[in-house]
Amino acid sequence: MWLAFAPAAIAQAPQSSQPFAGTVKKVTGEVMLRRGTDRIHVKEGLHLLAHDVLETPEGGSTGFILRDGTRVAMGANTTLEIDRYLFDPGTGSLGMLLRLVRGAMVYVSGKMSELSPESVRVETPVGVVGLRGTEFGISLEAK
User: Fold this and answer.
1) Which of 2, 87, 98, 97 lies closest to 47 in space, CA to CA?
2) Domain spans of the chain, in order of start
3) 53 vs 80: CA distance, rounded Å
4) pTM for this structure?
5) Cα–Cα dist 34/42, whole Å
6) What does the alpha-carbon distance between residue 66 and residue 91 come to, in Å, rounded to a whole number?
7) Which of 31, 49, 98, 124 is 20 to 30 A from 24 in CA distance terms?
8) What gap in Å lies between CA 29 and CA 107, rounded to an integer?
9) Burial group, residue 128, by CB count within 10 angstroms (0-12, 13-18, 19+)
10) Per DSSP, what are the bridge partners of residue 83?
11) What is the pLDDT along the chain (143 residues), one digit of tens a residue?
12) What pLDDT was estimated at residue 127?
């Protein structure tokens, strides 16, 4: 299965000292990714990097798996930033910060929250979720 994604990933992955954070597994609608000043149409198999911002349209959704096995699903009209992602258990470099700007997401913990639960956080405009090996959903209502 990974071999099917390899050519597309090589073509889309920029030069970086950090390995990719995760891989998009499912896309519905015209999901966009902001990477610096670039806007990229999200396709299955796209590798995600720290500081990437994913945006789903009305009626759209996406799901991705991070390198530690964390799974995230985003609903329609959602904006989520992968603010920080470090996963190198051999050196103890572990850290994840996801920022849900608007919309809805479902999160299922991976290896990082088992190894270092204090290094994993999800921030929203109204609060911070500290993770301890868990599953949860968040829906931010527009005012």
Assistant:
1) 2
2) 2-11+18-140
3) 6
4) 0.84
5) 10
6) 18
7) 124
8) 21
9) exposed
10) none
11) 343 444 444 344 444 456 899 999 999 999 999 999 999 999 999 999 999 999 999 999 999 999 999 999 999 999 999 999 999 999 999 999 999 999 999 999 999 999 999 999 999 988 887 766 688 888 887 65
12) 81
User: Residue 49 and residue 60: Cα distance in Å, rounded?
Assistant: 21
d(CA 138, CA 46): 24
* Nearest by Cα to 98 from 116, 75, 72, 118: 72
- Write the single-letter amino acid at 123: E
Strands (E), the chain: 22-28, 32-35, 38-41, 47-48, 53-55, 61-66, 71-74, 79-88, 93-108, 120-124, 127-130, 135-140
What is the reported pLDDT for 1? 35
Query: 2-11+18-140: which CATH topology?
Result: Jelly Rolls (2.60.120)
Q: CA 125, 112, 52, 102: dihedral to nearest 10 degrees?
A: -20
At residue 36, φ and ψ (nearest 5 deg) are 65, -125
Distance in angstroms (rounded) separating the CA atoms of residues 42 and 30: 7
Q: Give the C-alpha separation, 71 to 61, whole Å.
A: 14
